[in-house]
Amino acid sequence: xxxxxxxxxxxxxxxxxxxxxxxxxxxxxxxxxxxxxxxxxxxxxxxxxxxxxxxxxxxxxxxxxxxxxxxxxxxxxxxxxxxxxxxxxxxxxxxxxxxxxxxxxxxxxxxxxxxxxxxxxxxxxxxxxxxxxxxxxxxxxxxxxxxxxxxxxxxxxxxxxxxxxxxxxxxxxxxxxxxxxxxxxxxxxxxxxxxxxxxxxxxxxxxxxxxxxxxxxxxxxxxxxxxxxxxxxxxxxxxxxxxxxxxxxxxxxxxxxxxxxxxxxxxxxxxxxxxxxxxxxxxxxxxxxxxxxxxxxxxxxxxxxxxxxxxxxxxxxxxxxxxxxxxxxxxxxxxxxxxxxxxxxxxxxxxxxxxxxxxxxxxxxxxxxxxxxxxxxxxxxxxxxxxxxxxxxxxxxxxxxxxxxxxxxxxxxxxxxxxxxxxxxxxxxxxxxxxxxx
Amino acid sequence: xxxxxxxxxxxxxxxxxxxxxxxxxxxxxxxxxxxxxxxxxxxxxxxxxxxxxxxxxxxxxxxxxxxxxxxxxxxxxxxxxxxxxxxxxxxxxxxxxxxxxxxxxxxxxxxxxxxxxxxxxxxxxxxxxxxxxxxxxxxxxxxxxxxxxxxxxxxxxxxxxxxxxxxxxxxxxxxxxxxxxxxxxxxxxxxxxxxxxxxxxxxxxxxxxxxxxxxxxxxxxxxxxxxxxxxxxxxxxxxxxxxxxxxxxxxxxxxxxxxxxxxxxxxxxxxxxxxxxxxxxxxxxxxxxxxxxxxxxxxxxxxxxxxxxxxxxxxxxxxxxxxxxxxxxxxxxxxxxxxxxxxxxxxxxxxxxxxxxxxxxxxxxxxxxxxxxxxxxxxxxxxxxxxxxxxxxxxxxxxxxxxxxxxxxxxxxxxxxxxxxxxxxxxxxxxxxxxxxxxxxxxxxxxxxxxxxxxxxxxxxxxxxxxxxxxxxxxxxxxxxxxxxxxxxxxxxxxxxxxxxxxxxxxxxxxxxxxxxxxxxxxxxxxxxxxx
Lengths: 438, 532
Description:
The complex is a heterodimer.
Chain A: H1 17-22, H2 27-33, H3 37-47, H4 59-64, E1 75-80, H5 89-96, H6 98-112, E2 116-121, H7 126-141, E3 146-149, E4 154-162, H8 172-179, E5 203-207, H9 208-220, H10 222-227, E6 229-231, E7 234-235, E8 237-244, E9 250-255, H11 260-267, E10 277-281, E11 290-291, H12 301-306, E12 315-320, H13 325-339, H14 345-365, H15 370-380, H16 390-414
Parallel strand pairs in A: 1-2, 1-5, 2-4, 8-12
Antiparallel strand pairs in A: 3-4, 6-7, 8-9, 10-11, 10-12
Chain B: E1 2-6, E2 9-13, H1 19-25, E3 49-52, E4 59-60, E5 71-73, H2 77-92, H3 108-116, E6 136-137, E7 142-144, H4 154-162, E8 168-171, E9 178-181, H5 194-198, E10 204-206, E11 219-224, E12 233-239, E13 242-248, H6 261-264, E14 279-280, E15 288-289, H7 292-303, E16 310-312, H8 319-332, E17 336-340, E18 348-350, E19 356-358, H9 366-371, E20 375-377, H10 379-387, E21 393-395, H11 407-412, E22 418-422, H12 427-430, E23 434-437, E24 446-449, E25 454-458, H13 471-482, H14 494-504, H15 513-516, E26 522-523, H16 526-531
Parallel strand pairs in B: 1-5, 16-17, 16-21, 17-20, 21-22, 22-23
Antiparallel strand pairs in B: 1-2, 3-4, 3-5, 6-7, 7-10, 8-9, 11-12, 12-13, 14-15, 14-23, 18-19, 24-25, 25-26
């Protein structure tokens, strides 16, 4: 497949607006602005575009939830808080063609009737924030942004808002809280952001990759987009970020539904050093791990869900035969225990507790009841027991590591030394006095 | 109104009510930690899970509004398992130091652990600790033990939404998050001790009450705060004749769930009796203890002859006592009666509707005195009234006004015949010819009228200390000796005085003691209230 989202990779000055215009940029915007916003939403809905941030919710449907009769302002937020371990695709889009993202944001804002859009960008993405600021300045000069763009009467402003380093701010309601200047903590849902979002107004939050797809859908039509990929529910091009034990880690743009085998062995050059594949995490660290024998399933939303995991963001973490799975789980849990916002009891207490247990198992002090405790945590901190999906994000790995690699944990526990017995301190007894001073 | 079925019981509640309140109405207790009816809903403790038929997952009762025809199960196996899991998560890092924790006995963690928790734990690792935050004074009245905290954020929401001072904040993140004062400034607002009330565990406790009494020993008597004219409903906690604390009692119209620190720490004052028997000065020296009979006889013979005394009544008395003052002295003896009123410091409290209720003066019952047609005076007028001489002076409450407790007041009345009723000695009572011991606030029963025009009942929790008697009783005894017929049936009780009062004072018409038990204060009749 010819790259679509990363078509300008390798072009000289690919970030400048002139290169973008030369490659046919902003044509879709001109086309969208003469369409009715409802038709734009319909087109995106028909394309089958599903959210690329992780949940895979159809973007056109999400836009349809915004009340159209409201007098309050509406907002569009582009979620560029790409902080999940193993995910690095949005950064690639911003690096390659920031204007593609801006065009997508403008079209999406037009479709939902927003006049202000925010790009919430991860705090560590310093360069990327600057790239976006520069692109916004260019687009303003060329009248693609600002008041009355392209003399159509549509006003749109885009603000870049930098995060302060919390993973949880990638969750849409925590992100909204963060933009509002509050502590980044997910809100209770309902109400959903489409009804009560940023500053209490209807808000749509979309991922960078989702929005970058929008200009292509408008330009080439929904059918063209749906034709790429496995079927209309799993359509379009997808960026797969491959990391871990492969020869050529990186971002690969392939049609949705390419098998993991093809991605890992053909595009990423196979397992490093000719070793054997042991396991892979299909979509960023929060997705349940899959063992090597599932490598032939297609990498799309429905197939991966069928196999018991999630496509998530498409960040594939590859582990070869040398990986100690207890260590790998400890590594993941360290991240989640650190990033839990601390609001809900199960996630706050559970993430740290699970980490303590896994750490102790690896240190050689595991106990037979530990796996039961881990299973209890993963059962009771996920599946709606918490406000936001961070509970599921750390419980998915625990459950899947225990499901597929339980023997490694059991080996550790079998070899464990018992903890030194805890003795109560012996209090000094004064011999000249009996108890109670008698 | 919508109808919901909770555990098979149908209940009708207003639209928008959440499931916790709906269940409460049906007589079912859903456990809650972060949910407090006076604060915003955050749904983060996750203990209030219930099963709603048709919903795929368990829902938190606090954040789920009722729908018509909803069918809810609060004790299904799924719910019980989830609650037990949340309890285990909460206790996993809790120090379990109940034997030395002052919250024990009124700790929701204890109660719900007993009711909903597991009888074991899977936890074998080190518990979380916050070194240096085990007993930390975070303000003038509040002691923090962060190790016990369950991160429900009620205290933070109290300082944001009720006191509007935002003193407290959550610091850090995840399992290491802790409550701290914002920018390290002390938690010093007029309602600061309320954060200890809302704290469901022993993380925040009140310095003044810590380790004074185990709460299961305390007997609690519903009363009304006498610190200012707002009249916050309170519970007075006492044990073996000693008052240990005041605690706010829910009254949606006046104080919501809250009370101010000024009122809360008046509790100690009630233990400070130093007049415990009638005193009579016979010669030149100190007044000597005497019998009630002799002391009352002095009042009849020396204080109430020819035209009666000049009476200083008090806005700190109950409606019943004030009514007797008016009947005996003003109506029957034709004496001049003044009620001194001190504006005091401005105080306010937020009621359950989120409105600020402000104080008018520093007395619990100035409105009652006004409604009864007694003459209210300020400190300056009081000084003139006492200074002008002529006839004996009867001070019904030696603590009626701050000025009355000064040396200057004692100088003003020197040389005059003074009889006083008091609980605590002041310079004025030291030189009075006769002093009768009066019962304290918790030792008397009656009603008070707040500045917002609501009449509330205060209950007697303790027997009067020493030989003291409630003011209403002293006044009825005096009336009998003065042969003033009050038309009251014997034995006289505050309830009977109140019945007479409601018949004679139009502002109180239609009130009965029985109504006080179900209503959050009965409003006085408006057009009459405005006259005063």
